[in-house]
Amino acid sequence: MFKSNDRTKEVARLGVMAALSVVLAAVFHFPLFPAASFLEYDPADIPVLLTACIYGPVAGVVITAIVSIIQGLTVSASGGVIGILMHFIATSCFCIAASLPFYKRRTTKSLCFGLVLGTLAMTLAMIICNLIFTPIYTKMPVAQIASMIPTIFLPFNLLKAGINAICTFLLFRPLKKIFED
């Protein structure tokens, strides 16, 4: 009789979560603010965050790298290398900050704390990335990009990360049981 290898199961599950992330980005994306229609929400970070909380921050960052490249070459191809890099930085910061407190303690309180921390970490990372990379990508002056931070980039990133954090929190318990067998 063939016995299933735990490592093989884990790799397969990580692959499923990466694929789910890409599919979510392809199917569900829409602007949150009409004035900034170029900034679109997608729920693609939810499977990545779930992976980070279940398997740890390293697994979350590995899935982030895979997903960033695949999305950057397909769904979000217009962003090019800069889009891939910004996605990787933002989601990695979110994963690490969200999963570290929870992965060590495994309590509902630590999950909540981690997701709030992750939301803030991603938002801060995106402010920095927007100041560095967006002027290169858009060929706009840094001062013009900086003026957009409080009215466009900050609210968008807080809202996007917040929605993904809430969804991750709501889905964690039911999905955790699937990953524990």
Keywords:
mainly alpha
Detail the topology: elements first, then pairings.
Blueprint: H1 6-27, E1 30-31, E2 40-41, H2 45-55, H3 57-73, H4 80-105, H5 108-132, H6 134-138, H7 142-179
Antiparallel strand pairs: 1-2
What does this structure look like?
- With 181 residues, the chain is mainly α.
- The protein has one domain: Arp2/3 complex 21 kDa subunit ARPC3, CATH 1.10.1760.
- 80% of the residues lie in helices and 2% in strands.
- The chain is built from 7 helices and 2 strands, in the order αββαααααα.
- Strand 1 and strand 2 (40-41) form a beta hairpin.
- The longest helix is centred in the last third of the chain and has 38 residues, at 142-179.
Summarize the structure.
The chain is mainly alpha-helical and about 180 residues long. It has helices spanning about 5-25, 45-55, 55-75, 80-105, 110-130, 135-140, 140-180; strands at about 30, 40.
Shape summary = globular
Q: Using only CA atoms, what is the Rg?
A: 17 Å
With strands numbered from the N-terminus, the spatial order across the biggest sheet is 1-2
- What's the architecture, going by CATH? Orthogonal Bundle
Helix content: over 70%
Structural domain tally: 1
Q: How is the CATH topology named?
A: Arp2/3 complex 21 kDa subunit ARPC3
CATH class call:
Mainly Alpha
Quaternary structure of the protein = single chain
The total of helices stands at 7
Number of E strands:
2
Unreliable sequence segments: none
Going by helix content, strand content and strand pairing, the class is mainly alpha
